[in-house]
Amino acid sequence: MDLKLQQHIxxxxxxxxxxxxxxxxxxVGGGSINTTHKISSENFNYFVKTNTTSVFKxxxxxxxxxxxxxxxQDTIVPKIIIEGIFNNHIxxxxxxxxxxxxxxxxxxxxxxxxxxxxxxxxEQFGLEYPNYMGELLQKNAFYNDFFTFFIxxxxxxxxxxxxxxxxxxxxxxxxxxxxxxxxxxxxxxxKPSAVHGDLWSGNFICSLNNKAVFIDPAVYYGHREIxxxxxxxxxxxxxxxxxxxxxxxxLEKGFKSRKDIYNLYPLLIHLNLFGRSYFRSIETIVSKF
Length: 289
Hints:
By secondary structure, the protein is of the alpha+beta class. Helix content is 42%, strand content 18%. It has a five-stranded antiparallel sheet with strand order 1-2-3-5-4, sandwiched between helices. It has a two-stranded antiparallel sheet with strand order 6-7. A two-stranded antiparallel sheet has the order 8-11.
């Protein structure tokens, strides 16, 4: 951890609090992209993530906007303390969330919270600004239908990047082109829903009061099934969660056959960020088309 950056962050927090605290810094897990710490002083506990402007040129501004977006939809998110840029370093300080046990009641509460988020709507699919999925830029240009939004803003940019990197070949491009033609008949027609956008098991916290705290968003107005689909990747959620969601806001029949199509997007993201180990999963899905 850069000492000058650490001192700057502590100074900015003290200005915010009108205090003169000295913090203990403890490295914690927080993903593969950012450096993350828990910092503590007296009764003040915060989560700090840092990176550089070479990764996120605007700092963590898009993440702050995403958290604010979710909060406006009555979704629980950590309190934002400060965000900024220091030299070529970027930082975001959030309130620390103590974790509770993931009980059956927690999963039911989480399903209710997500269904509530999904019931916030917009006239079009998209968002006023681009943001990030991992460290890759996520386009959010507005479209009137989800299949066009998904093709133009989600699949095509990542497929192009993967092809240019030599991670997929012409054969896969042909499969994707065939998929694009079939998408209009595959997705259920629904109004745009506010979505978290990157909802896997690492992007929520079970709080001590049995509620989910949403973190690391990649928000936009999209198809609500995309959150449910991504939740099944990398371990998945509890069965109680899916049963409760289905009772609150039922999905149209055939979701199990659609979820792999939605998950092409995060799988392509991982292919482009982490390499060929994700190729087989993508090939298995697109080879059906």
